[in-house]
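Sanity check

After download, print the first record. It should look like this:
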Amino acid sequence: MTKLVIATRVSDLALWQAYHVKERIEKSFPEITVELNKIVSNGDKVLDKPLALIGGKGHFTKELEDAMLAGEADIAVHSLKDVPTYIPKGLELASVTQRQDQSDVFLSHKYENLEALPQGAVVGTTSLRRRMQLLKQRPDLKVKDLRGNVNTRLRKLAEGRYDAIILAYIGLSRLDLLKDIPFTQKLSLDMMIPPMGQAALGIEIVSKNHKLREIAISLNDPNTFICTKIERDFISKIGAGCSAPVACNAVIVNDNIMFTTMIGYPDGTNIMQEVMMRNIFEGKNLGEDMAQKMIDKGALDLLKRAEENAFKDEMPQRL
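Expected structure tokens:
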């Protein structure tokens, strides 16, 4: 193999991630020339509806996967949180890069932090997970949907459409955008539990290609792979769709894996939260075991009702 093509979305953050992977591959495999196939995903086109109503996060990966299956790319670089637990036949999620800072961050031009927001303040977020946890702590706030790329969201904040917005810290940090915001507050993982796969990159490849797998494995971080697999196993078994507020986070502490999960209504009520700890050598089934524990406590009915209540006035359009 002398040339490798990476499929990537065209957002600033996606391109940062793709070029980062490109540089790493070229450094480890100097005999290979790496090119980018820049693709506009449907999730980047439809900006006037909540993500959950246009089919969820699969809208950020489908076009890239189609390009690989059509022979137009060898690998795809994804934000792992955007990758559905179902991978199409002929492709595989071969590796996961080392996880970076998973925090969400509060941003405002008016108020110093979340605690300083007055009653009834308007907060923007696209995420039902964030909405659930935010309203659990501050039920007095008004949460409005916020779509668009990172720069569009920051512009809307600057224009005064929101008193504050909440975004993932890592994307803003990678694009060096935090310096232009007057007030920022990194939210602790206890205050705002992340989603599956937050702050890690997923490397998806065409199956049965040994060289591609060798290249992908060179990018893999074993501990991150273990933790994100637990999170993905949990989401898969519990059947949490894009219209369900779900948070989950696995971390390795010494020789143990601590796995924290939360589901509930988008309005911050009917919260179910669990924590499980297991030795790292016995953690293979931790995600599935956590899902079963929550299912036994009524999680499936809770998720169904949460999804029904998420967007009562709009009809979801699935892939």
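If your output differs, re-run the checksum step. Summary of this record's structure: The longest helix spans residues 12-28.
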